Amino acid sequence: MQRNAKTPLGPSFSADRKRGSVARHLRKWLVSRGQSVHTSFMCGVAYRAGDFATGLVIAWLIARY
Predict the structure, then answer these.
(1) What 3-state class would DSSP assign to 63?
(2) Do 30 and 40 form a contact (C-beta atoms < 8 A)?
(3) pLDDT tens by residue, 25-60
(4) Measuring CA to CA, which residue among 30, 58, 25, 32 is closest to residue 44?
(5) In whole angstroms, how far apart are CA 15 and each of 22, 23, 51?
(6) What is the DSSP string of 1-56?
(7) Rounded CA gap, 24 and 31, in Å?
(8) N or C: which end of the chain has fewer CB within 10 A?
């Protein structure tokens, strides 16, 4: 038996449109705040690294005394 209906090759058009609108919204939000994606990422990395370093120092002080 042969199938006449074609199967969709990717996500539906509405999903693509929704994803595009979310991406545009995020870009506008970042630009309005004066930050780029790279700057936001680096700030997040620095925050996590500082948080980890603080925890490491506290753990070292507790273990030492």
Answers:
(1) helix
(2) yes
(3) 887 876 776 666 677 777 888 888 889 999 999 999
(4) 30
(5) 11, 12, 37
(6) ----SPPPSSS-HHHHHHHHHHHHHHHHHHHHTT--HHHHHHHHHHHHHHHHHHHH
(7) 11
(8) N
Tokens matching residue 54: 């603080």
Angstrom distances, CA of residue 40 to CA of 15, 49, 52, 64 = 26, 14, 18, 36
Cα–Cα separations (whole angstroms), residue 51 to 10, 17, 30, 44, 57: 41, 38, 24, 11, 10
Tokens encoding 47:
């925050």
pTM: predicted TM-score of the whole model, two decimal places? 0.39
Cα 18 from chain centroid (whole Å):
17
In whole angstroms, give the CA distance from residue 62 to residue 65: 6
